[in-house]
Amino acid sequence: MKYIEVDEELYRHIASKTERIGESASDILRRLLGLSVDAVEQAQPQAISQPSLEATTPEPQIAPQVETFVSAPDFNQLVDEHKLEQQKGAVGRFLFLLESLYQQNQAQFSQILQIQGRDRLYFARSREELLKASATANPKEIGNTGFWVTTNNNTAKKRAILVEALMQFGCDAQIANGIAERV
Predict the structure, then answer these.
(1) H or E, element range at 179
(2) How far is the C-alpha of 55 from the C-alpha of 102, rounded, in Å?
(3) pLDDT at 67 over 80
(4) Beta bridge partners of 141
(5) Are 131 and 137 spatial neighbours (Cβ–Cβ below 8 Å)?
(6) Nearest Cα residue to 182 out of 148, 151, 155, 145
(7) Edge-to-edge strands of the sheet including 123-124?
(8) What residues contact residue 11 under an 8 Å CB cut-off, 6+ apart?
(9) Going by DSSP bridges, is the β-strand pair 148-150/123-124 parallel, antiparallel, or unpaired?
(10) Mean predicted confidence (pLDDT) in 23-39
(11) 155-168: per-residue pLDDT in tens?
């Protein structure tokens, strides 16, 4: 792997083109330049245990949980347009939509902790946990849920994180993207 130095403006441009959680700068550039992303051997993700202050035993794998509740959430009813319009900025809308997702999936919401970037923690059970992972995380609690999210990402990244969260709960990709566009 070779490394190059880029200026801040170019870095922001590359980062704004992110389409999925954990997509590397190399993958983004390959896609933008029309090169094959499959040509590069991708590292296999390691299993992620659920971060929790009180957990002493590993949580069950995610796949069985998804199978048991895929039809439970009504994603078409997730967005209350009137309340969404009252939120302040992209961060407010992001938090509101995550809280709405929590309201429909309280029992399984802890699986959101599985969503991480390649080198980034997006969700945690405490503010301190996010700050420990990144001092600039700007953690915010998702309503009064006891779950926290990093909010110092650009709007495109917030949308990508929300799409990943929605799909984690069985939402169709097209519906998830439509919801995320409201951030």
Answers:
(1) helix 173-180
(2) 20
(3) no
(4) 148
(5) yes
(6) 155
(7) 123-124, 148-150, 139-141
(8) none
(9) antiparallel
(10) 80
(11) 999 999 999 999 99
Distance CA 24, CA 7 (A): 17
More confident: 105 or 22: 105
Alpha-helix runs per DSSP H in 36-169: 62-69, 81-85, 89-104, 127-133, 155-168
107: left (phi over 0), alpha (psi -120 to 50) or beta: alpha
Please tell me the number of Cα atoms within 13 Å of 100 on its side-chain side. Answer: 22
Tokens of 133: 């992972």
For residue 46, what are its two tokens?
A: 């390691």
CB 50 within 8 A of CB 113: yes
| Amino acid at the residue 49 | S
The pTM for the full model equals 0.62
- Establish how many alpha carbons lie within 13 A of residue 174's alpha carbon, considering only the half-sphere containing its beta carbon: 0
Strands annotated E in the chain? 123-124, 139-141, 148-150
Residue 113's pLDDT band, with cuts at 50, 70 and 90, is very high
Question: Tens digit of pLDDT for each residue in 127-175?
Answer: 999 999 999 999 999 999 999 999 999 999 999 999 999 999 999 899 9
Residue 46 to residue 57: CA distance in whole angstroms: 18
Other CB atoms within 10 Å distance of the CB of residue 34 = 6
Query: Has residue 57 got a pLDDT over 70?
Result: no
